[in-house]
Amino acid sequence: MTTLKTQDYSIFFNEKAYESLNKHLSEANYSKIFIIADENTNAQCVPHILANIDSDIVYDILEIESGEVSKNIEICVGLWEALSDYGADRKSLILNIGGGVITDLGGFIASTFKRGIHFINIPTSILAMVDASIGGKTGIDLGHLKNQIGVINTPKMVLIDTYFLNTLPENQMRSGFAEMLKHGLIANEAYWNKFKDLSKLTTDDVDELIYESIKIKKDIVEQDPLEENLRKTLNFGHTLGHAIESYFLSNPKKEPLLHGEAIAVGMILASYISTKTCNLATPTNQEIKDTILSIFGKVKFEQEDYNPIIELLIYDKKNEHGNINFVLLETIGKPKINCTVSNETILEAFEFYES
């Protein structure tokens, strides 16, 4: 897979990733390397990476608990203190090795420690490869509210090694497909169509789908790095998806959802809302629902869940001047931003999802 170059950094793949990392380490004169990982990636991924690093730079591993529960200010304080205790300085480098939580959190840690030190993202899940590690968004949650605190700051490079997909459980693999489906829906119908029958996909096909998905996101971000217009389309399915994810995370009666599982629901809801607001064709809406449910199955909602989820929409990052802004579809590959939606239509969308 060919290296993808952005305005600020490059995305390297497989063998080229380690060649590029070692070249960078030999030239950058870092004082020390700090690896941020969770217990899973520390055990399953860090040894593989260290075996491919050809450098005498001293390193320390900072391990945190896996999952969204670690994406908070308390963990940040612990990591900042650890960096300070272990002698990190302005010439230190952070390697973020993990899924979306690690790349979001680690990028934020690096961007704020001593007013900013270099970091490199090495995503180990599909979701992190195609979405979280690309585009420079870093951040943490505020309580159970997703991604409320953060900065946009780009890594020195992103290294994609699809070897790590062998370490993923099935639900994590499936979670990553949600962002890839989204990229097809907002940008490329031909790409979306490749997901109609995943049973026929080979390992090489998955590698190519990941590459195409990364390229779609890269091209969108380059045109609108600060999310003033076009980049907002990447939030398709996320307005309700994030609210659902937050609600399931904070409700002790609910089993927390993976990010992609919540976004999958959000995309089905946004697709239905698009039929009411943007004239998305009914057969297209049904196709979107059937395709997503064939991959993810259905999440169980109770009637009393709907209003608390809707109430969480006021915290969505796309909101402006008191308006809750949705990204919707006029057709596959043609999104529309800054759409306002009534609560009645949202409730109808839940009914459609359940039907």
Keywords:
alpha/beta; Rossmann fold; Dehydroquinate synthase-like, alpha domain; 2 domains; three-stranded mixed β-sheet; 48% helix; 3-dehydroquinate synthase activity; NAD; nucleotide-binding
Structure description:
β7 and β8 form a beta hairpin. The chain has a 4-stranded parallel β-sheet with strand order 4-3-5-6. The protein is an alpha/beta fold and 355 residues long. The chain is globular. It has 2 domains: 165 residues, Rossmann fold; 182 residues, Dehydroquinate synthase-like - alpha domain (Dehydroquinate synthase-like, alpha domain). This is 3-dehydroquinate synthase.
Assign the CATH class of the largest domain.
Mainly Alpha
Q: What share of residues is helical?
A: 40-55%
CATH topology type of the largest domain: Dehydroquinate synthase-like, alpha domain
- Quickly give the CATH architecture of the largest domain: Up-down Bundle
Outline type: globular
**What is Rg?**
20 Å
Q: List low-pLDDT spans.
A: none
- Written as H for each helix and E for each strand, in order along the chain, the element string is EEHEHHEHEHEHEEEHHHHHHHEEH
The total number of structural domains is 2
Q: Report the strand count.
A: 11
CATH superfamily grouping of the largest domain: Dehydroquinate synthase-like - alpha domain
Most strands sheet: 4 strands, parallel
Q: Give the oligomeric state of the chains in this entry, treating copies of one chain as homo and distinct chains as hetero.
A: single chain
The assigned structural class equals alpha/beta
**Mean pLDDT figure:** 95
Number of helices: 14
Q: Report strand %.
A: 15-25%
Strand order of the largest sheet: 4-3-5-6
Distance between the termini: 42 Å
Keywords: Cobalt, Lyase, Metal-binding, NAD, Nucleotide-binding, Zinc
Domain 3-dehydroquinate synthase N-terminal: 62-174
Function: Catalyzes the conversion of 3-deoxy-D-arabino-heptulosonate 7-phosphate (DAHP) to dehydroquinate (DHQ).
GO molecular function, one term: metal ion binding
